[in-house]
Structure formats: C-alpha cells, structure tokens
Specification:
By secondary structure, the protein is α+β, with helices and mostly antiparallel strands. The protein is about 35% helix and about 25% strand. Strands 3, 4, 5, 6, 7 and 8 form a six-stranded antiparallel beta sheet that branches. The radius of gyration is 32 Å and the shape is globular. The protein starts with 7 loop residues before the first helix and ends with a helix.
Length: about 400
C-alpha cells in the first residue's frame, strides 16, 4: 500500500471528504476545541514569559526520568542535589542551600537560640581529654552544675578519654529532651552529672576585669549578643574601669543588625557602614551621638571575619581604639537569605560593604596597629592560658596603661 493510498473500503463507503467542504460541528466539539487551543496558548505564553531555557530543560529532564527511568528516584535528595548544584555554579564561597531542618537551625543560631547542653569544649593538649571551656548561663549544663574546667571522662557509661574527639562529640549529641549522663573530673574528684539536651539562649558574651580594664570576649554576633553586650559594658563601666578590651579572635561574624547596634553603643554619630547592591543601590547604617568615653583595644586574628571585622574597623575608624594581634580574615560582603515554601532556603552574596572610612577590607583583611603573634607553645595551650600568659591580652593592657598614663 502506498504512502498516500487509503484503504479501499473507506473510499467505497464515501468517508473521504473534499478539503473545501465544511463539515458541521456540534456545540460541544467547538467548546472542547476552544478549550484545548486556549490551554496550549496559555502554556506557550507562560513558558515564553516566565520560564527560561534552564527551567524548561529541567522540567523536561524530570518528565523523561519520571516516565522512562527504570530505577527508583528519591525526590527530596534529587531536589537537594539540584539546588546545591545551582548554588555551586555561582562560584560564591559564601553561598549555600539549606534543607528545611538545616535552615531552621541556621535561623535559630542567628537569633541566638541553640540546642544542646550549653557547653563549649576543647581537647586538652596533654592528655586528650575533653575539657569544658565555657558554660552558657541558664542552659541545662549550667542548671545541672557543670563548670568551666571540668574534664569529661564518660558519656552514658562509655569512656571517652581514649575516643576520637569527633566520635565523643557525636556521642553527646542526641534528640531534644533526651538526657545525657556524664562523669566529669573536677579538682581530682569524680562527679556524676546528668543534663538534658535542650534549646537554650546562646551566650556569646563573657566578661571580667583585667587589672583596671574591662575585658569582653565576643564569640559571635546574633540577636542575643546585643543585650548581653550592653549588660557587660554597663557593668564594667559602672565598676570604674579605665578602658575596654574587646576580643573577637575566632569570631566568624554574624548579622549586620546586631553588630550595628553594638557599635552604636561605643562610637559617636556617623556612618558605620555603606552597602552597595547589584543595581547600584546604596544603604547606610548610622550610629547616634551617644558613645562610651573610654580608650579601647580590639584583639584580632586570622579567624576574625565579617561582622567581627566590621566591629573592629568601626572602633578604629571612629578613633575609639586600636587593633592588636594579627591580620583578620578579609570578608566585606553581605549575604541574603531567600526562603522557599517548604522552609528550605538559599543564601548567597547580595552586596559589598564599606566601613566608616570608606575603605573595604574584602579579600585582604584588617592589619593590626600593634602586631602580636602567639608562639607554637601558646597556640597549643591557647584555651588554657591565663590572662597574663596571653601575649595579645598583655599587649592590650600595656597599650591602655600608656593611654591612661598608668
């Protein structure tokens, strides 16, 4: 049978129509045909207006796999990998995709809410035992009686003194509401302490006096840092300190809003920072005229980054104090968080920012006014150094004594 031939029985029965003949259509056929044409046109217009090539290709790939792939597909894992791949293509080292649970944890950290026992720990350089560096006020660890300097010997009956550090840490972690049973060593005495794994307000400020000067250690910049910082400074100033030392070594940054409010407490009226966005739009953050009239020093190192650097630069740019230590990390770009309906989120760089002086420290860091480096021995025992054993703190005290003519 030829390509253009028709079955004989169709011809003989008169089924072939003249192409110029207009057949009669029922009203239902017209309605259905109109609906189909409308749907097709709407789909085409939507694709042209709202979808670019990447989205269309991704939709087609999803269609092909759904209809023809013989294996199983984990849709959540696929989505996560696709999102991470897109983020990776930005070549933005500060960009990331957070699945819903991770996004919630990140948001909580920025709000100053953590989950755990409420302790920061480190590995003792001599005997490899896990030592408690600090205990967050009001946390379950604090309520249970754990103290700075305690050495953790056992977790739920398992000896952790010979265990890999990460394995020991993972042994402590658990679901919220579960109890952690610890055996700790304190002053050559063994103590059994149980604490609940729970949510708690992060403590990012620790402070005390070093001679006649106030010392404030800032772990991070989040929503809870602001009231904690104000309390620390108010108490130290009320006690009659002659100067202030702020330690942001190891501080990886935090939110712009929190560092702005903290800087505002210390410096006079002026522009704290200027942000420049993709479209050239500029935003400025200001401080008011109120300030703390005391000499200051900021302790920095290579891990002082982002908001910690903005804090450090502001103290120096407003002529409130000097930087002591080593060169900072060098991050003067801002990230934005974009949320999705399933509570996952994407984070990527949206602006560059400049300090009060109009300079940027991005990719180069802040050079200290007084360079002080720790030697290998001091680095090894850093978490165990007393104030007078830390050369950076000692240099800050000496600087403030000189300013105050002591």
């Amino acid at each position: 049978m030829g390509a253009n031939s028709c079955p004989h029985n169709l011809k003989s029965r008169g089924y072939m129509k003249d192409i110029n003949q207009t057949p009669k259509k029922s009203p239902i056929s017209v309605i259905v045909l109109t609906a189909v044409i409308t749907f097709i046109l709407t789909t085409v217009i939507f694709c042209l207006l709202f979808l670019d090539g990447k989205v269309i290709k991704l939709k087609l790939l999803d269609y092909y796999i759904s209809n023809y792939y013989i294996g199983d597909v984990d849709s959540k894992e696929t989505e996560k990998l696709v999102m991470n791949g897109y983020i990776a293509s930005l070549n933005d080292k500060y960009a990331a995709f957070f699945a819903s649970e991770d996004a919630e944890n990140r948001n909580n950290r920025l709000l100053g809410v953590e989950n755990g026992l409420g302790i920061t720990i480190f590995l003792h350089p001599d005997n490899n035992t896990i030592c408690i560096k600090s205990v967050a006020s009001g946390s379950s660890a604090d309520k249970a009686g754990l103290l700075k300097g305690d050495e953790i010997l056992e977790v739920d009956g398992q000896n952790v003194t010979k265990m890999n550090y990460n394995d020991a840490v993972n042994l402590i972690k658990r679901e919220l509401g579960k109890t952690v049973n610890l055996k700790v060593s304190r002053d050559n005495t063994t103590i059994d302490i149980s604490a609940e794994y729970a949510n708690y307000t992060a403590q990012s400020i620790y402070y005390h006096k070093i001679e006649n000067f106030g010392y404030v250690e800032i772990y991070s910049f989040n929503s809870q840092t602001v009231p904690q910082f104000k309390t620390a400074v108010e108490n130290l100033v009320s006690s009659g300190v002659k100067g202030l030392i702020f330690d942001v070594r190891g501080n990886g940054g935090g939110t712009v809003e929190s560092v702005k409010e903290i800087v505002d407490v210390l410096v006079p009226e002026g522009v704290i920072m200027t942000s420049i966005y993709k479209n050239g739009h500029k935003e400025e953050l200001f401080s008011d005229a109120n300030e703390i009239d005391l000499p200051m020093a900021v302790l920095t190192d290579k891990a002082s980054a982002s908001a910690a650097e903005l804090f450090s630069a502001s103290i120096r740019d407003f002529n409130k104090g000097v930087l002591i230590g080593t060169t900072t990390y060098g991050k003067a770009v801002m990230q934005g968080t974009f949320n999705f309906p399933d509570k996952s989120s994407a984070v990527f760089t949206i602006a560059e920012f400049y300090t009060h002086s109009g300079e940027t420290y991005n990719k180069k860091g802040l050079e200290p006014d007084i360079k002080v480096e720790l030697n290998d021995e001091q680095i090894k025992y850093f978490n165990l150094l007393a104030d007078n054993e830390d050369p950076v703190k000692v240099a800050a005290v000496e600087y403030l004594k000189g300013v105050c003519n002591e």
